[in-house]
Give the backbone structure.
Amino acid sequence: MTQTNSRKPRPKLLRRVWNWFWSPIAVFSVGFTLLAGFLAGILFWGGFHWSMEMTNSEEFCTGCHTMETNLGEYRETVHYNNHSGVRAICSDCHVPKEWNHKVKAKVMAVKDIYHELVGTINTPEKYESHRLHMAAQTWKKMKQSDSRECRNCHNFDYMDFTIQETRAAKEHQRAIDNSMTCIDCHQGIAHRLPEGYLDEYKRVVEEVTMDMVSKPHKDAAISTKEILGYLSFKETPEG
Amino acid sequence: MLELLGTIAGNVLSLPGILGLALGMTTRNVFLAAGLGGLVGVVETIIFASFQMTNVDMMELSISVAVGILAGALGSAIRIKGTTV
């Protein structure tokens, strides 16, 4: 019997690691194991979160060659330089703060790496030909989320209309009354607007509305007609 | 497709994935564990919808519940395989 056992082939490496992983610990106390696991958890989660935050830096976002055009345009806007010295960087507008939405945005951003590698927008001509499509994607996200990322800093509740320009105060009041969202008026706030943007924005609004009709959502669908009406009268972008 | 993957990843790294797994590890009953995980998925979706059912996206709810169920069942499997009690 002993001879038979000794001839048993030695398990392969993966099997041995698997068996070791599931074998009971005989040398560590429960307290030691729990504390070690707890510390390892903190280290892992801290490291994970820190790494994710690093991908939110402006240097990281603009590290790719294809982001140079975006960066140049953004540097000429009020979100980059202003009298108060408050700056909104790429991630402030494009990455949600809430954990679930943030992870989703990070996973979806994998497509940017692919397009950088295949050179989808690596020349000014290619960039311009994709500008409207890229802008429309961002507008759609903002419209769907009720301009969630804008509202991390800007909030109607905190606006003092008495110290705003008369036109701005009037339009903001109208936006509140008609349940409009920031992006309904402020397209092109950080990047140059493509040709035909108004028609494309109308299309985006209609698309989002269709989604909302099939899936009732707060009161956003109520104002669609008014938003479309407003867009048809609007001649120049604001902000 | 990317939106789907993003939603799944968001849930795996959020309450349904982590709390679902932890709750699953508290029981040897796989079905109970899966149920607990699914419940976490429902609760998380409602929390993210600011406790308003009109804000609940059915796709996000389905993915949260599915991730919770799988995490709970995995937690239970870990309990069965990794403990003697």
Chain A has two domains: 31-122, 131-239.
